[in-house]
Design goal:
Strand order of the largest sheet: 3-2-1-4-5-6
Shape: elongated
Radius of gyration: 24 Å
Helix content: 40-55%
Structural class: alpha/beta
Oligomer: single chain
CATH architecture of the largest domain: 3-Layer(aba) Sandwich
Pathway: Nucleotide-sugar biosynthesis; UDP-alpha-D-glucuronate biosynthesis; UDP-alpha-D-glucuronate from UDP-alpha-D-glucose: step 1/1
Protein name: UDP-glucose 6-dehydrogenase
Bound molecules: 1,4-dihydronicotinamide adenine dinucleotide, uridine-5'-diphosphate-glucuronic acid
Number of strands: 14
Organism: Chitinasiproducens palmae
GO biological process, one term: polysaccharide biosynthetic process
Strand content: 5-15%
Distance between the termini: 59 Å
Catalytic activity: UDP-alpha-D-glucose + 2 NAD(+) + H2O = UDP-alpha-D-glucuronate + 2 NADH + 3 H(+)
Length: about 450
Amino acid sequence: MKITIIGTGYVGLVTGACLAEIGNDVFCFDVDERKIAILNDGGVPIHEPGLAEVIARNRAAGRIRFSTDVDASVMHGDVQFIAVGTPPDEDGSADLQYVLAAARAIGARMNGFKVIVDKSTVPVGTAKRVSEALAGELARRNEAHGFSVVSNPEFLKEGAAVEDFMRPDRIVLGCDDDENGQRARAMMKQLYSPFNRNHERTMYMDVRSAEFTKYAANAMLATRISFMNELANLADEVGADIEYVRRGIGSDPRIGYSFLYAGCGYGGSCFPKDVQALIRTASEHGHDLKVLNAVEAVNERQKNVLVDKILNELGSDLTGKTFAVWGLAFKPNTDDMREAPSRPLIAALLRKGASVRAYDPVALDEAKRVFGLDLSGTAEFERLSFQHDPYEATEGADALLIVTEWKEFKSPDFGRLKAQLSAPLVFDGRNLYEPSEMRKQGIKYTAIGRGRVL
Ligand SMILES: NC(=O)C1=CN([C@@H]2O[C@H](COP(=O)(O)OP(=O)(O)OC[C@H]3O[C@@H](n4cnc5c(N)ncnc54)[C@H](O)[C@@H]3O)[C@@H](O)[C@H]2O)C=CC1
Ligand SMILES: O=C(O)[C@H]1O[C@H](OP(=O)(O)OP(=O)(O)OC[C@H]2O[C@@H](n3ccc(=O)[nH]c3=O)[C@H](O)[C@@H]2O)[C@H](O)[C@@H](O)[C@@H]1O
């Protein structure tokens, strides 16, 4: 099938590459000339395991190409995926300007039946607005081509995006009931049939329910995390260990083990913005989503939990102290720094007078860029440095802080750490180590919700 992908970010690029991998003819369009130039030079602008290989294979086979040519992109695809960003607006609602710009670009050029797929995460009612934008452009041109807008939200996780796309838990398709909607549904069914393998994973529903499903999924996952973080803070107070509690409740299949890890808060480009957007949608309909408001508030507080523990241990003036920070990306296996808990943590330490030496296996360039945007020109920025080796960061530091659970941090050389740190202090925002083992190593270890064993 001929597919156009509009927006070559995390979702668009993975969608395009994976659809090419199963034999489709894919045209990836972006307005960002820099990204397209990198892709046309054989590079990949983001770090996503396995993606470079899939792109290289399909480029060599002639099944995927990258361009900033909007006319060619609209001409190419019978199916046009909109995978542009939907960042939060000032009031927390999803900013739809890029989605609607993409819709208008299609409407201004289409010359035959098209299926337009909303892949971006968009609030209930957006497909209707996309339809109106397309119809408006067609009316302006005095042309009447058929089209249908399908909602096909994406559930992939960064760091495992290719794997998630190729082996989805489910494919949600929201289609209209009219003739064009049925035609679109048949095309989408054919497009996704290779992913269904042994049983049908595709779920058909109306467009609004599909749009809502995406927000409900992210809101539920964020809720589990904030719930566990709140209990972890209580565990610290009452002298229980949240790791035992996690295992104890996860074994109940009605609860399950996934997404029960307490930590220093959830980040990323999606949970924070999608929780906010759902709260905003609700308030537009006169509803106050009490649970989700609490989920967000708990997460905001949780991003400070490591700073609180440090101040508790070292006192409120951190002038002259140096902290090594391991892990900057919002989660492992990505270079994405959007809403990363490392950002407010490092900013707070710098504000308190400390120096920070930061290390991340892949996010250093992106970290330099975002901290430059956040802090450049300030006195604090002078006290922030980036290291290319984890032990360069810890040499002579007053404490080590762990913010992202990269695999390479799971089994460090504790002897070396202890010898390097000016005092053997580790503050772990991701509960990577066994407290009893740390005690044996002679390291003072503070984690999240592990009060009983400390
Ligand atoms: N990042 C993730 O893990 C997931 C993201 N999503 C959703 O998918 C959407 C995209 O997210 P990301 O891929 O992370 O965003 P991104 O920011 O990585 O990429 C968006 C791309 O769209 C391009 N773009 C903007 N306006 C355009 C236009 N008019 N025409 C062509 N290209 C345009 C930008 O230049 C950029 O390259 C968002 O709605 C997000 O919530 C959904 C599931 C997972
Ligand atoms: O809509 C989206 O963009 C995506 O958002 C999340 O994916 P992602 O943001 O890539 O990463 P997650 O693995 O969900 O982690 C999000 C944050 O939660 C934190 N987290 C996760 C799990 C956990 O148990 N505890 C916890 O603190 C992570 O450290 C990270 O900061 C969802 O998991 C995807 O299904 C969804 O498609």
